[in-house]
Design goal:
The structure is a single chain. The chain has about 400 residues and is an alpha/beta fold. It folds into 2 domains: about 110 residues, Enolase-like, domain 1; about 230 residues, TIM Barrel (Alpha-Beta Barrel), CATH 3.20.20. The protein contains 11 helices and 15 strands. Strands 4, 5, 6, 7, 8, 9, 10, 11 and 13 form a 9-stranded mixed sheet that branches. The chain has a 4-stranded antiparallel sheet with strand order 3-2-1-15. Strand 2 and strand 3 form a beta hairpin. The model has no long low-confidence stretch (mean pLDDT about 95). Catalyzes the dehydration of L-rhamnonate to 2-keto-3-deoxy-L-rhamnonate (KDR). It catalyses: L-rhamnonate = 2-dehydro-3-deoxy-L-rhamnonate + H2O. It comes from Streptomyces endocoffeicus.
C-alpha cells in the first residue's frame, strides 16, 4: 500500500500592481482605443463624461497580480483588476487564511476568505481580490500536479473552442473566422430619439456588411432603463440580433425579468458581467432575468465559485458564456457543455487584429486562429508573467 504524501503548503501569498497600461486592467489604454471611447454608460447623463469611459475613471484601479508560492518553491499566479486597493485586501486580510495551508485546500480557503469579508465585501472589489487569489491557487495546483487547469476540472468536452468577438468592427471579425460579433452601444437614453435611431442604424449597417449566419449582439453596459431597452430591442427586430447584453444596472433583477419577457421572439437577454457570487446569479436565474449568464471569472469569485454558478445555470437550463478574462475562462469553457463558445475581446485599438487580451503583462497567452482555439497541455493556466513588466508590491504582511 502506498501512503498518501502530504501536499505542499503555501508559504507566501503576495499581491502586486503594475505601473504600466494594459494587462489585467485592459481598459487602461491609450487615447483613441475603441474599448473606451463613444460607448453608452451610466455616466452618459453627464455630458462631460459621455465621450470616454476613461473620463469617469474606468481605468483607475489598474492591474492586480497575485502570487501563491508553495514551500517547494513552485509559484502560481493570476491577473485581474483591482490595483492597490485589492492588493491591500490580499496582503492585509486574505493572506492569513492562505499561508501555511495545504495548496490543495481550495474549497476551504475560498469559503474562509468569503465569510471573513462579508462585513465589507460580498461583491465588487473584494470579490476581485478573492478571485485573484483563487485563480493563483488553481494555477499553483496545476503546476504542482503537472496538469493544465482544464484537466483538474474534469477534462475537455470538445477538441477545440469557438469564439465570438467583442469589437467595434464585427465585420472585420467575421473575416477572421469568429462566429459572431458584439458591438458596444454608442448612444445612451439621454441622447433622445436621435440617439435611438443612430443605435438602430448602426446595427442595420453592420448587418448589411456581414453574412446571415454571423450573429450580432449589442453590449449596453448598464446604461439603459427598461422602456428604452424594449424600444431598442424592437427597433432591432429582424436584423438577426442574437442578444441584448447588460442593458440595466446589475442589481435590477426585477427590471431584467420584465425586459426578458418583453423582448422580440428569438432575441435573448444576457447579463452577469458585473454580478458576483452564486447567490447573485441565483437571483438572476430564479427570477428569470437572463437566457445566458456572463460571469467574469476574475470578478465573480474565481474558478471555485464559477463552477458553482455554472452548476446552477445548468440546473435552470441556461448557458454560461463568461465575460472576457482570456485563459482564466478558456480553461473553464472547454470543460462545460453549457458553455458552447467563448468571448474574445479585440484589443487592437481599431479592432482590426487579433492580439492577446492581457498584453503586455502575460507571455504565451493563447489567441484564437480563424476563430478557434485548442488549449496546450502546459501545467496550470499555461501563461507566464512578462519580466519586462515591472511589478510593484505596495503592501506587505
Amino acid at each position: 500500500m502506498t501512503l498518501r504524501t502530504h501536499p505542499p503548503r503555501i508559504r507566501h501569498l503576495r499581491a502586486y500592481t503594475v505601473d504600466a497600461p494594459g494587462g489585467g486592467d485592459y481598459h487602461d489604454q491609450p487615447t483613441g482605443h475603441w474599448i473606451d471611447d463613444q460607448i453608452a454608460t451610466p455616466m452618459a447623463v453627464y455630458p462631460e463624461y459621455r465621450a470616454s469611459r476613461q473620463s469617469f475613471g474606468l481605468n483607475v484601479l489598474g492591474s492586480l497580480v497575485v502570487e501563491a508560492e508553495a514551500d517547494d518553491g513552485t509559484v502560481g499566479f493570476a491577473v485581474t483588476t483591482g490595483g492597490e486597493p485589492a492588493a491591500w485586501i490580499v496582503e492585509r486580510h486574505l493572506a492569513r487564511f492562505v499561508e501555511s495551508v495545504p495548496a490543495t485546500d481550495l474549497e476551504r480557503l475560498w469559503d474562509q476568505m468569503f465569510r471573513a469579508t462579508l462585513f465589507y465585501g460580498r461583491k465588487g472589489l473584494v470579490l476581485n481580490a478573492i478571485s485573484g487569489v483563487d485563480l493563483a491557487l488553481w494555477d499553483l495546483m496545476g503546476k504542482l500536479r503537472g496538469q493544465p487547469v482544464y484537466e483538474l476540472l474534469g477534462g475537455p468536452v470538445r477538441d477545440e473552442q469557438v469564439f465570438y468577438a467583442t469589437s467595434a468592427r464585427p465585420d472585420l471579425a467575421e473575416g477572421m473566422g469568429f462566429i459572431g460579433g458584439k458591438m458596444p452601444l454608442q448612444h445612451a437614453p439621454v441622447e433622445g430619439e436621435a440617439g435611438l435611431r443612430a443605435n438602430i442604424e448602426q446595427m442595420r449597417t453592420m448587418r448589411e456588411r456581414v453574412g446571415d449566419d454571423f450573429f450580432l449582439a449589442y453590449d449596453c453596459w448598464m446604461s439603459l432603463d427598461v422602456p428604452y431597452a424594449l424600444r431598442l430591442a424592437h427597433g432591432l427586430d429582424g436584423l438577426g440580433v442574437r442578444w441584448v447584453e447588460e442593458a440595466l444596472p446589475p442589481d435590477d433583477y426585477w427590471g431584467y425579468a420584465e425586459l426578458r419577457r418583453g423582448l422580440p421572439p428569438g432575441m435573448l437577454c444576457t447579463t452577469g458581467e458585473h454580478e458576483a457570487g452564486r447567490l447573485g446569479f441565483r437571483m438572476l436565474l430564479e427570477m428569470g432575468c437572463a437566457d445566458i449568464i456572463q460571469p467574469d471569472v476574475g470578478w465573480c469569485g474565481g474558478l471555485t465559485e464559477l463552477m458553482k454558478i455554472s452548476a446552477l445555470a445548468d440546473a435552470h437550463g441556461k448557458l454560461v458564456v463568461p465575460h472576457g478574462s482570456s485563459v482564466y475562462s478558456y480553461h473553464f469553457v472547454i470543460t462545460r457543455h453549457n458553455s458552447p463558445f467563448a468571448e474574445f475581446l479585440m484589443m487592437a485599438p481599431d479592432a482590426d487584429a487579433v492580439v492577446p487580451m492581457f498584453s503586455p503583462l502575460l507571455l504565451d497567452e493563447p489567441v484564437p486562429e480563424n476563430g478557434r482555439l485548442t488549449l496546450p497541455d502546459t501545467p496550470g493556466f499555461g501563461v507566464r508573467l512578462n519580466p519586462e513588466c515591472a511589478l510593484r508590491r505596495p503592501f506587505a504582511h
